[in-house]
């Protein structure tokens, strides 16, 4: 299922760790502190647990929002938009 | 997804737990979880870290030469499964059961060729009569093939002969249906003499590496062939199995032509023939991957065409050891 991860983290080092973790789970960065991608339930849960370990729960916040396909189709992209096909795993061949 | 490194001078490394690709000023980062294979079709740089990372995650890195033939691959040095499968594969290759198995693969190939021509016939009423001639020729070969009995040793020549004749009819039929500009005169390889063969060869090259991977994962020995005889470093078993899947490439390539998606600037002239260039490779690989991503009905369930190869290999392996 598509998952949005949105965070607000004070310390640079922690922020870096959370963003690396998101990337390694296969999420794509769509804004500075916003990640998006297709994750299964297991990965979604373990990403949540790992982020919780990293952050300072007194000051920081990480939101993990699942989103169904129906709603994703209704997403409006304005301005500098991300690649909708890439984040929803519809790209089966990527050329360089 | 499949990563295809198709631009000279690209650079691939591992960064955190991702593959990181750099081409000129463009960069791209993707998690190992999203990648299932990496295809390198040109001169590029890869770090050993990236290779190790790929191997650890069962992502195979395949290097293709100008004609699409895989000239190397990076894959773990393990057997894939138990040696018992390979032992049985050797034993069965000269038993009647091996003969039936090998004959079945060729029958399936000819069947799918005939089916393809019949599909093409549906939308081409003007060419129906000619196509019917080709089809009945091929059906004749198929029934001769079905009638064969005995051992592989004695029958190998006959099987291959009938297969060759059926294929000749088949490609003549395909050439007949192409627009004049793209008509071809039989199969040509290394190098291809025309655009159709050029795309076909490259597609078969990509397919060949998929079949080899599926064999290894299922524990089958790529070198112990049934229809194809032993030879120095010859991956006979891959040659045997690939026959069943060529049709997917044939259909993909033919569709590219019939939908007018092939243009002259896909090809580079070389002495005695032609090769596919960067642009041509991109169009073909994209189309082939789309084909493999389509679902078909397979033994009562719907699975992706690309996965049928692995399912078949597992099934063959399980049959060999009586499971």
Automatic annotation (TrEMBL), chain A:
EC number: 3.1.-.-
Keyword Hydrolase recorded: yes
Keyword Nuclease: yes
Record keywords, A-Z: Antiviral defense, Endonuclease, Hydrolase, Magnesium, Metal-binding, Nuclease
Amino acids binding Mg(2+): 8
GO biological process, one term: maintenance of CRISPR repeat elements
Molecular functions per Gene Ontology: hydrolase activity; metal ion binding; RNA endonuclease activity
CDD domains per the UniProt record, alphabetical: Cas2_I_II_III (cd09725)
Enzyme class: hydrolase
Cofactor: Mg(2+)
Domain of life according to the entry: Archaea
The family this protein is said to belong to: Belongs to the CRISPR-associated endoribonuclease Cas2 protein family.
Function field: CRISPR (clustered regularly interspaced short palindromic repeat), is an adaptive immune system that provides protection against mobile genetic elements (viruses, transposable elements and conjugative plasmids). CRISPR clusters contain sequences complementary to antecedent mobile elements and target invading nucleic acids. CRISPR clusters are transcribed and processed into CRISPR RNA (crRNA). Functions as a ssRNA-specific endoribonuclease. Involved in the integration of spacer DNA into the CRISPR cassette.
Assembly behavior: Homodimer, forms a heterotetramer with a Cas1 homodimer.
Name recorded for this polypeptide: CRISPR-associated endoribonuclease Cas2
Native source organism of the sequence: Methanosarcina barkeri MS
TrEMBL record, chain B:
Positions contributing to Mn(2+) binding: 163, 228, 243
Name used for this protein in its record: CRISPR-associated endonuclease Cas1
Family matches, as Gene3D superfamilies: CRISPR-associated endonuclease Cas1, C-terminal domain, CRISPR-associated endonuclease Cas1, N-terminal domain
HAMAP family reported in the protein's UniProt record: Cas1
Biological function: CRISPR (clustered regularly interspaced short palindromic repeat), is an adaptive immune system that provides protection against mobile genetic elements (viruses, transposable elements and conjugative plasmids). CRISPR clusters contain spacers, sequences complementary to antecedent mobile elements, and target invading nucleic acids. CRISPR clusters are transcribed and processed into CRISPR RNA (crRNA). Acts as a dsDNA endonuclease. Involved in the integration of spacer DNA into the CRISPR cassette.
Gene Ontology biological-process entries: defense response to virus; maintenance of CRISPR repeat elements
This protein's record includes keyword Nuclease: yes
Keyword presence, Manganese: yes
Coiled-coil boundaries: 131-165
Listed cofactors: Mg(2+); Mn(2+)
Keywords: Antiviral defense, Coiled coil, DNA-binding, Endonuclease, Hydrolase, Magnesium, Manganese, Metal-binding, Nuclease
Short name of one Pfam family: Cas_Cas1
Taxonomic path: Archaea, Methanobacteriati, Methanobacteriota, Stenosarchaea group, Methanomicrobia
Quaternary state and interactors: Homodimer, forms a heterotetramer with a Cas2 homodimer.
Family classification: Belongs to the CRISPR-associated endonuclease Cas1 family.
GO molecular function: DNA binding; endonuclease activity; hydrolase activity; metal ion binding
């Amino acid at each position: 299922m598509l998952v949005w991860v949105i965070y607000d983290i004070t310390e640079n080092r922690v922020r870096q760790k959370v963003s690396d973790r998101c990337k390694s789970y296969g999420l794509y960065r769509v804004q500075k502190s916003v990640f998006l991608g297709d994750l299964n339930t297991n990965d979604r849960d373990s990403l949540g647990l790992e982020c919780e370990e990293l952050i300072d729960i007194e000051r920081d916040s990480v939101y993990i929002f699942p989103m169904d396909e129906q709603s994703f189709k209704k997403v409006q992209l304005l301005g500098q938009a991300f690649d909708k096909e890439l984040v929803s795993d519809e790209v089966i061949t990527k050329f360089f | 997804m499949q990563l295809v490194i198709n631009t000279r001078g690209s650079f691939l490394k591992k960064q955190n737990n991702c593959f990181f690709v750099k081409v000129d000023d463009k960069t791209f980062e993707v998690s190992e979880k999203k990648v299932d294979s990496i295809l390198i079709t040109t001169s590029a740089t890869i770090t050993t870290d990236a290779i190790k990372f790929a191997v650890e995650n069962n992502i195979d890195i395949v290097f293709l030469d100008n004609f699409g033939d895989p000239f190397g691959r990076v894959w773990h040095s393990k057997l894939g499964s138990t040696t018992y499968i390979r032992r049985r594969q050797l034993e069965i290759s000269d038993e009647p059961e091996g003969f039936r198995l090998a004959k079945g693969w060729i029958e399936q190939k000819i069947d799918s060729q005939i089916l393809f021509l019949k599909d093409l016939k549906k939308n081409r009423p003007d060419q129906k009569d000619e196509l019917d001639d080709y089809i009945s020729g091929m059906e004749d070969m198929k029934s001769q093939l079905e009638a064969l009995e005995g051992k592989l040793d004695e029958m190998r020549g006959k099987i291959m002969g009938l297969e060759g004749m059926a294929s000749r009819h088949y490609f003549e039929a395909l050439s007949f249906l192409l627009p004049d500009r793209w008509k071809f005169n039989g199969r040509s390889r290394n190098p291809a003499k025309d655009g159709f063969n050029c795309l076909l060869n490259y597609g078969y090259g990509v397919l060949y590496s998929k079949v080899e991977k599926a064999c290894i994962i299922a524990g089958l020995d790529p070198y112990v062939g049934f229809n194809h005889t032993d030879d120095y470093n010859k991956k006979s078993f891959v040659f045997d199995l690939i026959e069943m899947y060529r049709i997917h490439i044939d259909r993909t390539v033919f569709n590219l032509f019939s939908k007018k998606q092939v243009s002259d600037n896909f090809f580079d002239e070389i002495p005695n023939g032609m090769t596919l260039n960067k642009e041509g490779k991109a169009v073909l690989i994209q189309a082939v991957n789309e084909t493999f991503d389509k679902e078909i009905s397979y033994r009562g369930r719907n699975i992706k065409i690309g996965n049928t190869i692995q399912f078949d290999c597992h099934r063959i392996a399980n049959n060999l050891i009586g499971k």
